[in-house]
Structure formats: structure tokens, C-alpha cells
Amino acid sequence: MNAKVQIAGLDRAREMEVFAAVADEGSFSAAGRLLGLTPSAVSRTLDRIEARLGVRLMLRTTRVLTLTAEGHAYLSAARRILADLDEAEQGIADQGAPRGHLRVSASLAHGRQQVVPLLGEFVRLYPHILIDISLTDVVVDVAAGQADVAIRFGPLTDSPLTARRLGETGRTIVASPDYLTRRGVPRSPEDLHDHDCLNFNFRRAEPVWPFRKDGRDYSLMVRGPVEANNGETLTQLALAGVGVTRVGRFSVQDAIAERRLVPLLEEFNPGDREPIHAVFVGGTNLPARVRVFVDFLAERLR
């Protein structure tokens, strides 16, 4: 490619930028202020485009600028080309130093206890990435653009998303020492019929807890005065002596170590494990900021 062709390509990209600014701002002077050009320079740019194409792109009066049919077509093409240029430059920039806005969705308990403590290290490693983290047990729609990365528990449903396994967790039944003093310690799963059991209320949760006795797995119906949509709330209720709950081990491990909660019926624990995944929109155009964040989580949480 010779120098003249290179310069022409650069000039045309600049011309498209100027034309799009005029169409958006509605006047030469406003477009010039936006781009740091004089109104006469903007006008000459438009004249040059029209002369090269041999068509009128914009009808100009003292009060209003109106795009012709050819002008609308040129504007659409210009915006597409400029967007492609921006995307190409961002892709190259990402390869050098990942950057940009990264939206992360994590559950309340796991996010607060496992993910948030890692963010300080991540932002030191990648200072050009802005982390926007939301802690919620509501399942966000990653495919619809509600988050760039979401951390999910349990079996994954069929979807076009890419999943990266981060680990797994088990469940533990716990109650506070105060509750057990008042209500007694359950010695077998069936004793839970005489206790207040705190359970999840979201759709995939069932009002049954799994157990294993004498080598046989079975489920036991449980009931109680409160249901909640997240393990952190259930843990807080258990700490307050409201009842017995069954939550992810990570939610209660500190409270167990501090003897504020007591694990129950461990000999009947079926050992069921719940996988943890990071899900995101994959493919060949995966932004570097998503890739390095998922790699970071997989390394630290495995």
C-alpha cells in the first residue's frame, strides 16, 4: 500500500467522523466545537465528500440541515465503519493491557465471603479494569447483557453461555447453641419434625433435605417459620436462634469455627456437592477483561 492510499484512508475516516458529528449535532458550528474544528473546516469537509461521491448528502439552509436519502445511507455506512475501527483498536488495546468496564454478579454470601476479598488483588493486577459487582441471589440474564460474568451454583441449564468451573461446595445443617439449649439437639433426621427448619424459597429449592442412613439416600420434608432467598439471611436467622438451617458450608464455616453455630446430623450428611461456575458470553471476540477475570477466579477459588 503506497503512502497516498494510506493518507486517503485516514482522511476518509476523519471525514466520516465529521459527517456523523454534523448529522448528530445538527449544525456545522456544534460539530466543530465537538471536534475542535472551525465551522468553515467542517463545511469544506462536507463539500469534499460530496464532490468525491458526486451526490448531495445534506441539504443546507440558514436554519436547518436535512439529510438526503444518499446522506442517510452514507451516515449508516460511516457509523458502521467507525464502530468497526473502535472495536479493532479496543481489541488491540485489550491484548496489551486489559481495560474497560466489567460487570460481575455473585450471590450474597459467596460474593461477600469469597469473591469480594479477592478484588483488591485483582485491581492491583489490572488497574485499567473497572469492576462493577452486584451481590444478589437473583439469577441475572448474562445472555441479555445484564452482566459480563455471573457466578452460579448447582447444575447448569442448557444455554449459549460459556461456563468455567470454579469449584464446588457442600451443605451443612446448623443451629445456634441458644436454640439447641431451648429445643434440644436432633439426634436423627426424623427429629427435625419437632424443630423449626429454615429453608430457601426460590423455585429450584424443595422443602426437603437429603440424608443418608444405613447406606440409603432419602429426602425428608421439613417445615419452619421463615423462608429466604439467600443463604446469608438463613445463616443470620440461625445465629439469632430462630431455627435450624441447611446452607452452603462456606456460609457458616467461620461461625462454626467460632462456636456461634453447631453442625448437626453430620453422620447422616449425604455428601452432596454443588458445583460453582463462572458463566459468560464466550466466543472468538471474548474481551480480555472477561478472560483475565475468569482465569483469576479459577486460580484463586479452585
Characterization of the model:
- With 302 residues, the protein is of the alpha/beta class.
- The protein is built from 9 helices and 13 strands.
- The strands form 3 sheets. Strands 3, 4, 5, 6, 7, 10, 11, 12 and 13 form a 9-stranded mixed sheet that branches. A two-stranded antiparallel ribbon has the order 1-2.
- Helix 5 links the parallel strand 3 (100-106) and strand 4 (129-135).
- Helix 1 crosses helix 2, helix 1 packs across helix 3 and helix 2 packs across helix 3.
- The longest helix has 28 residues, at 69-96.
- The protein is elongated and about 90 Å long.
- The two termini are 50 Å apart.
- The model is unreliable at 1-9 (pLDDT under 50).
N/C terminus separation: 50 Å
The total count of helices amounts to: 9
> Low-confidence segments, ≥5 residues, pLDDT <50?
1-9
Shape: elongated
Main structural class: alpha/beta
Question: Secondary-structure element order, as H and E?
Answer: HHHEEHEHEEEHEEEEHEHEEH
Quaternary state, please? single chain
Number of strands: 13
* Nearest-integer average pLDDT: 89
Largest sheet: 9 strands, mixed
The helix fraction, in percent, is 40-55%
As a whole number of angstroms, the C-alpha radius of gyration is 30 Å
Q: In percent terms, what proportion of residues is strand?
A: 15-25%
